[in-house]
Amino acid sequence: MVLMMELEEALKVFDGVKEIDDTESVKINDSIGRIIAHDTVSKYDFPPYDRSAMDGFAFRYEDIAASPTPLLKVKGEVMAGHSGKIDLNKGECVRIMTGGVVPKPCDTVIEFEACTEEGGIVRIPKLPPKFSNIAFQGEDLKKGEYAFERGDLVKENKINLMASLGMNYVDVKRKLRIGVIPTGDELIDIDEELNYGKIRDSSKYSLEAQIRGVFQEFVNFGISKDDEESIKYKISKGIESECDILLITGGSSMGDKDLTQRVLEKMGATIIAEKIAIKPGMPTIIAKLNGRKDVWIFGMPGNPVSTYIAFEMVVIPLIEKLTGTNKLSPNLLEGTFAGTFKKKPDRVHFVPCKVESGKVIPIRYNGSGDFTSLSRADGFFIAPKESSVLQTGDPVKYFMIKG
């Protein structure tokens, strides 16, 4: 009996997966794409003091709020980097530059362009609202608040705050070791001469890009021939190398030469799913080999589009569970379909498309072996299992190819 699972059912298999404990400390500029291992609490207020947001004059609003012709006497000047410790009396102000510490008891800044100064007296034709042009201490982030949460993905926009917090290093989850084992007598490596009947092993390179694209460690075990001993040897090498996940491409269908499941069963692996109700990617095997270290093993279709979708839709959710994040899976968007697409209402379809201003446009696609369509696509639209046709104007979900 073939263990066919719906995609949602297959992903629930990973619900009880234990997150890895291993972490490492890396320099913040080497941490892009890494997963933050611990909650990080701010030790400081941001801004750390009341800071002028404009070049202008700082004053206490109440001193002139009731005056029909507001006038202020200039007491001094505060530049960025100055302590701002100037004693002010009622009706006095300071000239202040952007980023300067706003002296007490000032609570408002008026920009130079909105007033006039002559002989040390500032005239204000129109009083700005109280608290104008000041970034107050702690208004962005208060001491004791979370700056970063466990499971956050480090992106370029986080580096500024890390540096401001004095974080030269950040603790991140270790990278998962993900091994790739392409199988097939027809496969040759990328630099070998292409003889009739042979094909270059493109899926290994595509998977390497996808693995590195989610910031994990790629391990190459080389091409395996279509025989049980060769496949078993490669899997054993993956286990010895302490891989967390093994991806075996080809050999996952039901033909005589599709040996992956047979080998896994003989090695004592638990077969969780033999097929997943998606297209492309249906002959995806999910297995687990228990030992000193548990290893998740995926038997993946050899066709390039199938391999791509199986990784994005099935493997990445496991990576997220193991690393304690939810930031790696494709981001589902909603658009408007522009074209016609027909299918049997039997499984979820992922179809290459172009996306222009929210319009989702199907492209020429000759099936899961058509790697040229993969290279032309902006993303994939999703045709739900129960649907049989999509037409122009229909709402449709899609995701963009990363990068």
TrEMBL record:
EC number(s) reported in the record: 2.10.1.1
Pfam families according to UniProt: MoCF_biosynth (PF00994), MoeA_C (PF03454), MoeA_N (PF03453)
GO CC, any one term: cytosol
Swiss-Prot/TrEMBL GO biological process terms: Mo-molybdopterin cofactor biosynthetic process
GO molecular function, one term: molybdopterin molybdotransferase activity
The protein's annotated pathway: Cofactor biosynthesis; molybdopterin biosynthesis
Keyword set, alphabetical order: Magnesium, Metal-binding, Molybdenum, Molybdenum cofactor biosynthesis, Transferase
Gene3D superfamilies: MoaB/Mog-like domain, MoeA, C-terminal, domain IV, Molybdopterin biosynthesis moea protein, domain 2, Molybdopterin biosynthesis moea protein, domain 3
Domain of life, source organism: Bacteria
Cofactor(s) this protein cannot do without: Mg(2+)
Family recorded in the similarity comment: Belongs to the MoeA family.
Protein name in the entry: Molybdopterin molybdenumtransferase
Organism: Mesoaciditoga lauensis
